[in-house]
Each structure stands twice: as C-alpha cells, then as structure tokens.
Amino acid sequence: MRLVSEQPEEPPKPETGAGQEARIGQRESRVEIPGKTRSRIDISGKSGMDVARTPRSKRKRYIYMGIGAVALIALTVFLAGLEPAAPTVDRDIILIGTVERGSFVREVRGPGTLVPEQISFVSALTGGRVEQVLVDPGESVADTSLIVVLSNPDVELEALQAMQQLTTARARLVELQRTLGTLMLQEEAAVASAEADWLDAQRDAQAYAELVENQTVSRAEASRAQERADAARVRLDTERSRLALLEQTNESQLEVQREQVNRLESIQDYQTRRVESMRVTARASGVIQDFDLEIGQWIQPGTMLARVAQPGNLQAELRIPEVQARDVQIGQPVVVDTRTDSISGRVRRVDPNVQGGSVLVEVRLEGDLPPGARPDLSVDGTIQIERLQDVLFVDRPAYGQANSTVSLFKVLDGDNEAVRITTRLGRSSVSEIEILEGLQAGDRIILTDMSRWDEADRVNIR
Asked: Running DSSP on this structure, what letter comes out for residue 37?
C-alpha cells in the first residue's frame, strides 16, 4: 500500500483568525491499492470513514504489577526482621581493663596543702596608721623582732590623760592621809587631856571625901567634887570612843582612795600597752607569711597583720570528698605526693564538718621532710582504708560507682567485638573497684565512658 499526498487544485488563500486555525494541518491523502479503486482518507480524523483497531490485552500488565507488589512486601518483611548494624568504636579512643583476683587495697585520694603545725597570728591590738614596715614576707624573725610601726595620736592622748588622772588620785590619797593623820593626833591629844582632867577631878573628890569626915568641908562641896570627877570620866570615855571611830573610818577612807589609785594605775598601764603595741613585734620565732602592708595604710583594731610559721614542723591538710571520707579513721597510713617526692604520714584528725562537699583531714608527717617541702605547697594525699584479700577487682571504669549495678561492655575473643553485660560493683578505691557479680577473672571490659552507645547491646572495635 502506498500513501500518496494530493495537493489541492487551487492554492489556498491566506486566511487569518479562526478560519486559518480551522484549516491548519488539513490535508487529503490518497491510498492506492493495486486493483482497487482509489479512496481518500482524511488523516485529520474528520474523514467520513474510520479504520477499526483490535484492543490490546491488559492481563500481562496486571500480572507484572502483582509480582512486583509481592516482591516489595517480601523485601520489607525481610529487612524488618534484620537486627540493626552494631556501631563501630575506634580502638584508639577506648581503654580496656582486665579483671583480676587477689589482694585489693582500698584507698581514697584528695588534694591539699602543707601547713605549719604551729602558726602564730600577729594582729593589731590598736588601730593606727602604718609608719614603717621593717620586714618582708619570707624573712625569718625572732619573737622580739620589730616588724611594723603604727601611729595614733588619739591613743597617745588617752595615755597622757590616764597618767594625769593617776597622778591626781595619788595626790588625793596623800592629802587624805595627812588630813586623817592630823585628826587622829588631835583626837589622841583630846583623850589625853580628858584623862588628865578625870584623874585630877578624881583626886579632888577623894580629898573632899576625907575632909567631910574631919568636918572640914561640907558634904555638898564633897558631892560637887564627886560629880566633877564623874563628868570627867564620861568625857574621857567619849574621847576614847571618838578616837576608836576615827581609827576605823580613816582606814576605810584610805582603802577607798587606794582602790581608786589602783584602778587608775591599771588604766594607765593599759593605755601604755596600747601605745607600746603600735610597735608591733613578731611575738614568735619563724618565717613571716601573709604580710602585705603599705606605708600610710590605716589599720583597724583586730586586723591580722602577719602570720609567723615554723617551717620545720609541717603537716598536710587534705580535702577528701564527703562520699569517700566516711571510712577515714585516725591512725590510717597516708602517702603525701609533693610532685617531686613522697612523704609518709598518718591521719591525725578528721574534721566533723563538711565544707564545699569535702571533709578536712589533717595528716601528721613522719620522717624527714624533702628539701622542696614548704608551707602552702600543693600536694595530693592517698589514705589507705583497708586491705582486702582474695577478691575480684578491675581498674575503675569512668562511670562505675561503689555498691551499684552498671552495664559494661565485655570484650570478646578476637578483640574485634564487645557485648553489654550487667555487673554488680562493690567497694571502691582510688583507681580500682571490686567486682561482685557478672565478671570472672581474666575477663576484659571497656573502661572508657560508653554512654554514646546506650542503645546498643553490641559494638564493633576496629
């Protein structure tokens, strides 16, 4: 069959608009079939006669689609049944420890400093202005060494006033003694005079009594003489009582004035000591520490000026975490590390109070101190709590606490894989911890923090 295109008899005239769009693409085709009459077919689909086509079957397509769906479902089920791939851990970033059985030493460790056993604090007894600073920190001083000189005009004025008051009181005491002494002498003279008058009157009365018997004088005169003698006796007794009263009151008055003088002497001594205290001495032999004063600085009473320490007698003060300090006891052995040397010692005192999450432990050092030991030197101390025999222990993991149950990764044979196991831990030390359950001697575990892989039960080690 041959397809022949037939051109229109007349060339179409140019058209515009809808007419042109309707005629675009319209062409007539003619099919020539040998031995048959020619027929025209309009390929634009507007011919008067259409050719019928046989419809294609969709059965194969449905079969292929069903097979694909079944395969997809099977693949999904298969993948869902697979376990997730184990994460990989770099061998260079982990530490591996081996479980051992044997002697296990429990220890606790804490930082601290070396401090003198005997420390003398030099404080200002009197406030004043710094006039002279005579020593520098680190110098050795004696107990009488002058270290700083203060000045305070008010204190000096108070000392002068106290001295003046004492002088006045002493003058009053002398004047009182003179006055009372004069009164005593006068009263003693009065007593003597009254006694003489009484004796004279008594002799007259006796003489008149004898004359009455001889009838030389009348009885009235004799009676008057006896009355004068009785009056002289009463006057004598009165003067003697007055003298006794003066003796008693004079001593009391003198005692009151003496006490006033003694009080003023104490005040004057105190003011004198205040003036003398402004010339501050070390008050103990040793090395000056914490001494930082400037000329012209004003010092308040009670301010600590310096600290005098004896460098030959040192002790260690350690700060032990409160969770570990509960087992620390007096007398336990201690090893103090000064970064260059080690010093042996024993626990001397455990502070009952907790400060900042730690407990202060004082350690008495034994033996000779190394050359580098000096006050305020930073050290580390290790206290031996107890020694356990025939126990399982391992290097302490980064996340293992005493008396707890944790999950650890146990390294399998070949060192390429580790699995998670549950382990119960017991008593702990500075760098080791006791194993109660879950591991055996010779097992190896990962000591590094594995919290990044908390969701994994198995890890690969490369």
From this structure: -
Rounded Cα gap, residues 323 and 302, in angstroms: 38
For the entire predicted model, the pTM comes to: 0.53
Nearest to 30 by CA among 9, 5, 8, 63: 5
Phi/psi class of residue 326: alpha, beta or left (left: φ > 0; alpha: ψ in -120 to 50)?
alpha
Instruction: For residues 135 and 147, give the distance between their C-alpha atoms in angstroms, rounded to a whole number.
Output: 5
Place of tokens 């320490």: 309
Q: Do residues 254 and 180 make contact, with C-beta atoms less than 8 angstroms apart?
A: yes
DSSP per position, 131-165: EEE---TT-EE-TT-EEEEEE-HHHHHHHHHHHHH
If one counts every other C-beta atom within 10 angstroms of the C-beta of residue 315, the result is: 19
For residue 75, what is the DSSP state?
H
The 10 Å Cβ neighbour count of residue 352 is 7
Identify which of 36-45, 80-89, 357-366, 429-438 has the greatest average pLDDT.
357-366
Whole-number Å distance between alpha carbons of 311 and 318: 18
* Crossing angle (nearest 10°) for helices 219-277 and 153-213: 170
Q: What are phi and psi of 109, to 5 degrees?
A: -135, 150
HSE (CB half, 13 Å, CA atoms) of 450? Answer: 32
Beta-bridge partners for 315? 115, 364
pLDDT of residue 56: 61
- Which one-letter amino acid corresponds to residue 6? E
pLDDT at 98: 92
Q: Are 6 and 28 in contact (CB under 8 A)?
A: yes
Alpha carbon distance 254, 332 (integer Å): 67
Query: Can you tell me the distance from the alpha carbon of 391 to that of 429, in angstroms, rounded to the nearest whole number?
Result: 13
The C-alpha atoms of residue 462 and residue 423 are separated, in whole angstroms, by 25
Q: Which residue has the tokens 């419809």?
A: 55
Which of 14-18, 108-112, 450-454 tops mean pLDDT?
A: 108-112
- 363 in Cβ contact with 325 (< 8 Å): no
C-alpha 304/C-alpha 119 separation (Å) is: 13
Which residues are registered as beta bridge partners of 406?
423
- List, in order, residues 6 or more apart from 249 with CB less than 8 Å away: none
* Length of the chain measured in residues: 462
SS3 of 105, please?
strand
Ordered DSSP codes for 335-353: EEE-SS-EEEEEEEEEEEE
What confidence score (pLDDT) does residue 27 get?
Answer: 41
Low-confidence winner among 20-24, 215-219, 226-230, 372-376 (lowest mean pLDDT):
20-24
Is it the case that residue 150 has pLDDT exceeding 90?
yes
